[in-house]
Amino acid sequence: ATAIFAMLRAFALRSAVVTSSARKAVFPGVRAFSTHELSEADFEKQWTAFFNDKSLTSLELRRGLNDVFAHDVIPSKEIIEAALRASRRANDFPTSVRIFEGVKDKAQNDSVYKTIVSSLQPVITELQLATPEELGF
Questions:
Q1: Which positions ≥6 away from 66 have C-beta within 8 Å?
Q2: What would the mean pLDDT of 36-60 be, rounded to a whole number?
Q3: Nearest CA-CA partner of 113 in 131, 129, 126
Q4: 80-109: per-residue pLDDT in tens?
Q5: Burial of 132 (0-12, 13-18, 19+ CB in 10 A)
Q6: Residue 4: per-residue pLDDT
Q7: Is the dihedral of CA 22, 27, 29, 35 positive or negative?
Q8: Would you state the pLDDT for residue 108?
Q9: What is the mean pLDDT of residues 46-66?
Q10: Segments in 15-135 forming alpha helices (H)
Q11: Is a pLDDT exceeding 50 seen at residue 15?
Q12: Torsion angle of alpha carbons 113, 114, 118, 119, nearest 10°?
């Protein structure tokens, strides 16, 4: 098995283009991600549309939030608002609190987090939600 691995590795390193399947064979355990990057506008459009889907279940909402927070960015106000509205439609109050926790985790400091929360205050009031700070966390 090690001889085959060494042979595959040598072949992959010599070839000009390493295919995804060859990369997986040569470097097992390393994920091969797409190199396609979404622009900020496309990222916002994709996730806003996802969270605005009226048929979104609580499980799908949490999965989408996990995907959004996996990126190395603070989600835009529009994405956060759509996610909060989706959590209200799904009648999932704990997830709405977790949205704020995710934003706080992504924010560089408390002032950025407080700015985001203050910009969402009309939505928070409209949907009768609470931030973690209001709940004593």
A1: none
A2: 92
A3: 131
A4: 999 999 999 999 999 999 999 999 999 989
A5: middle
A6: 62
A7: negative
A8: 85
A9: 96
A10: 20-26, 40-51, 58-70, 77-89, 93-106, 110-119, 121-126
A11: no
A12: -30
8 A C-beta contact, residue 81 and residue 116? no
Torsion 125-103-39-37 (CA) sign? negative
User: What is the rounded distance in angstroms from the CA atom of residue 130 to the CA atom of residue 92?
Assistant: 12
133 vs 3, residue with greater confidence: 133
Predicted pLDDT at 2 = 57
b vs e for 61-78, b when ≥16 Cβ sit within 10 Å of the residue's Cβ? bbebbeebbeeeebbbee
In the structure encoding, which two tokens stand for residue 18, read together?
Answer: 């390493």
Spatial distance between the Cα atoms of 19 and 16, rounded to a whole number of angstroms: 10
Residue 33 CB partners (closer than 8 Å, separation 6+): none
pLDDT surpasses 50 at 20: no
**H or E segment and range at residue 72:** none
105 touches 66 (CB < 8 A): no
Structure tokens at 67: 């995907």
Amino acid at site 131: T
Compute the distance between CA of residue 69 and CA of residue 3 in angstroms, rounded to an integer: 41
